[in-house]
Amino acid sequence: MRHTARRNRLRRGGLVGLAVLGLVAATGCAADISTPTLTWYINPDNGGQATIAEECTAEADGAYRISTSLLPNDAPSQREQLIRRLASRDSSIDIMSLDPVYVAEMANADYLTPVPEEYIDEFTDGVIPSSVESSTRQDELVATPFWANTQLLWYRKSVAEAAGLDMSQPVTWDDIIDAAAAQDKRVGVHGIRAESLTVWVNAMIESAGGSIVENPDADGAAEVELGIDSEAGRRAAEIIEKIAATGVGGPQLSNLDENAAMLEFQSDSGGFMVNWPFIYPATKAAVEDGSLEQAVFDDIGWTLYPRVDEDEEARPPLGGINLGVGAFSDHPDLAYRAVECIRTPERQSAYFLTDGNAPSNLAAFDDPAVQEAFPAAEVIAESLAASAARPLTPYYNEVTGGIQKSWHAPGSVDPESTPARSQAFILEVLKGERLL
Amino acid sequence: MKAKVSNRQLGETRLGWMLSAPAVIILLAVTGYPILQAVYFSFFNYRMTDPDNRFVNWGQNYIVILTDPLWWQTVGVTLLLTVVTVAVELVLGFALALVMLNALRAVRPWVRTAILIPYGIITVVAAFSWKYAFDLGTGFVGTWLAMPEFDWFGDFWSSFLVICAAEIWKTTPFISLLLLSGLAQIPGDMLEAATVDGATWWQRMAKVIIPNMKAAIMVAVLFRTLDAFRVFDSVFVMTAGAQSTATVSFLTYNQSISQLQLGMGSALSVLLFLSVALICFIFIRIFKVDLAQARGE
Known about the structure:
The complex is a heterodimer. Chain A is built from 19 helices and eleven strands. Chain A is of the alpha/beta class. In chain A, strand 4 and strand 5 (140-141) form a beta hairpin. The longest helix of chain A has 33 residues, at 2-34. Chain B is 73% helix and 1% strand. In chain B, strands 1-2 form a two-stranded antiparallel ribbon. The model of chain B has no long low-confidence stretch (mean pLDDT 88).
């Protein structure tokens, strides 16, 4: 008896449940059928891109819906995942947040839908030149600059003052190495065998007036010409050699990445450091949670990336994200409408405020809220304007892999042999004659 | 003279084939097909993101690999890592197997569980734990050993030591488990007879236990050698191949997944496959490992 009653209850409950599900499905389906969903593959951030996706979905008023899909943490893994999907012509990839260094490779493989004519002016006017350059392949705009990143020279005011350095004027690598060495302090650089080593080497070669790849538009790996074995390459090697030889790189030099360099900079041995702007919010947060003293935070200053030679302007590194539209997307037109919505200067400054990622559009820096939240904003804008992208070649992965192999460990770098050896090695790898 | 096969035996044989056929077919499809495709790709100069420039270069990839010092260096590192870890694991694993066998009945389940915990941890997670323990920034080992300024991942030998330690910690339980099954198979009366005859502990070990465990030992060594030769996770997590610690698997990964050089990567996978096959051949033919005997058949 009891069993029958229970069974009936269960059955009734089940029917109600089914009816509810049916209603939900019916309404949901109605919306889904008329509204195409665009998938935006985003790199991990503080949630800013997901917010933008929601805002643009609301703004589209039923024309499209953006759903985000999270990519792995580091740029090389993001590239691996995207390329594997694109190689199998994945139509679910509508919009991608791309590290600028992979744009050329993806465009060369025809994985990107180039920017339609009607958007070109809008997407490039008032945008940092190196960011536009990194979205361009063989004179065609193949991606859209979204946010840009650059490295600054962070310094401890007390150390600079004791060394008598005027940080309001441009300083050179030699200046800061000597200042740190004299006071037994450190110069934070990125000596780990990873992408950050290439970022560093590239910035120094560019600052010395050279380029790692001289013909980024070359077709075919064997056609690539390199400029590592040059005076600029030797100058870069001299700086690395000096950092290792004077000991200012610290005992962890060959494994120092951005985060480790920051921790070292915040310690008592901190002197100078080249690093991305996340240093400011990260240090502020450390003070707020009590793991760092306020005095350390107050002692930190920032300025433009150090020069290689006194009379030649520095070319700081460029990072950031460009937006690509997948070549196999079912809705490339809608995807570009969505990109137009995502990359507005207003959204870029809002994104800077929530996630700390600097805009690629210079107008976004004028936002008073940005200037209040990021005291370094002005220097960041100046640094971005002077920045140089890493080689924009489809064969970037071989180039960076070769640099990481031949310029590591920093202690083994020799200005006489490293640039020549590095260049010969990368050329052999590009021709398929050497393993990497 | 060959014994006449009865109808029933024939039927059973046929049934056996039919029962195992689906598994054999699926296995061939999921292993045979990729292997053949890798062999095919290995004769191409083929970069996944540059399909227009793909061409057949016949054996060029193999010539490049076999004449490249990097290949021989990775083979050397892999062999060294294999020999060191397997040797240490064998000794430690044997000791742990003895502990597991002889522990008091009350604590035996606890001892076995405790010993097996490292084996239950995912290799990547274990590798990260070891990396963070030794890392100069986050690590505590340097402070324990009164070397707070020593960068463990700063040169080959110290990096190699940490990688070996992580591998040994992680897989010794596996070896000890295999050895425990061998130990448990030794008849108790044989050991009793040896004791009655006045054999010392060492004599029992050398004359009774180890000879009777030969099959179990060889199987454990074979499995671990094959595993160790393919080591990837620890190297990937701890050094990413820096300080010349790249192994053959890491090199293969680098070529195929990072560089997307499908031709060169496939050639490396084929060579890795042949190396593993060679190890199996050496063990089974030269050391006469009897896999069936180890299972107690």
